[in-house]
Design goal:
It is built from one helix and six strands. A six-stranded antiparallel β-sheet has the order 1-2-4-5-6-3, covered by helices on one side. The termini are far apart. The protein has 112 residues and is an alpha+beta fold.
Length: 112
């Protein structure tokens, strides 16, 4: 059995470039799970911006790993709001490492 260590998610290192995009240039390679947490944070930020004065809560989050990032590579996170209804926001996101696909996410948020 592998020893489990606490995952440190360096949210503070994210450079937010807009409400729907961000990037990070970590010195060490990021594990896919850590990058996925960062991607979903960026997607939630975009959903919150789309909700305006209201807040959002996750209903569903699905992340697919499509590649990896090597140490020193910049990871870019982008999001897109697919649809917004009165009570639900459908959004997707992508993480690319040095231009290569790394992660995709499909998220649904409830507007509260």
């Amino acid at each position: 059995m592998t020893d489990l260590a606490d995952a440190i998610i360096p949210y503070a290192q994210l450079k937010l470039t807009s409400d729907s995009s961000a990037e990070i240039a970590p010195a060490e390679a990021l594990e896919a799970e850590v990058a996925a947490a960062m991607l979903t944070r960026v997607v939630r930020r975009a959903a919150a911006a789309a909700a305006g004065e209201q807040s959002v809560e996750p209903v569903s989050v699905a992340v697919d790993v499509t590649g990896e990032a090597k140490a020193g590579e910049t990871i870019q996170f982008t999001t897109h709001i697919d649809r917004k209804t009165r009570t639900i926001i459908f959004a997707n996101g992508e993480a690319r490492a040095a231009g290569r696909p790394m992660l995709t996410a499909i998220c649904v948020y409830r507007i509260v």
